[in-house]
Specification:
The protein has 161 residues and is an alpha+beta fold. It has 2 helices and 6 strands, in the order αββαββββ. It has helices spanning 8-20, 73-86; strands at 29-46, 49-66, 100-105, 111-127, 133-135, 138-142. Strands 1, 2, 3, 4, 5 and 6 form a 6-stranded antiparallel β-sheet that branches. Strand 1 and strand 2 form a beta hairpin. Helix 1 (8-20) packs antiparallel against helix 2 (73-86).
Length: 161
């Protein structure tokens, strides 16, 4: 079972750190969520699991001491765009705004870059007798609901009449 332990923001921050390493250090990156909306749905996902909500929020990533002369800033822009495209979120369907960046050059070698992007996380529940969430009279834990995908399909055709 896949426990939901990382948010889209954590995944984006890790992606940027990995992509910019070793030039950008972990202590030069900070990330947080703000101004979120909890979109309720209660969808039955099968496997006794439910999606109770989607968490739509503004994510902010602050890069301190970004070496804008050593790393082409367009590489950073491309990294953010590539992550968002690869994440497969239907950004238009959920009305997620395009990222906004604010670049403040603090010296000839460094800039502070603020990346603001709307992200969305699924909030899903799986049954757990000791889970912290009481839903529909049962106990659950926050965890991604496993997808059951058919590996084979039997197709039967009726004879032509």
């Amino acid at each position: 079972m896949s426990t939901q332990t990382k948010t889209q923001l954590q995944l984006l921050a890790e992606f940027l750190l990995t992509s910019l390493s070793p030039i950008v250090k972990a202590n030069d990156l900070d990330a947080w969520q703000e101004n979120g909306t909890l979109i309720l749905n209660g969808e039955d996902k099968g496997s006794e699991g439910y999606q109770v909500a989607k968490w739509k929020h503004n994510a902010v990533i602050a890069l301190e001491r970004f070496p804008h002369r050593r790393i082409n800033p367009y590489n950073l822009l491309a990294m953010v765009a590539a992550f968002l495209i690869d994440s497969n979120w239907a950004r238009d369907e959920y009305g997620l705004d395009d990222p906004q960046l604010d670049i403040d050059v603090v010296s000839k070698d460094h800039a502070t870059v603020l990346i603001e992007v709307q992200l969305m996380d699924d909030i899903e529940l799986l049954p757990d007798d000791n889970g912290p969430v009481l839903f529909n009279g049962e106990r659950y834990r926050v965890s991604l609901v496993p997808l059951n995908i058919a590996e084979t399909v039997d197709v039967q055709q009726k004879g032509a009449e």
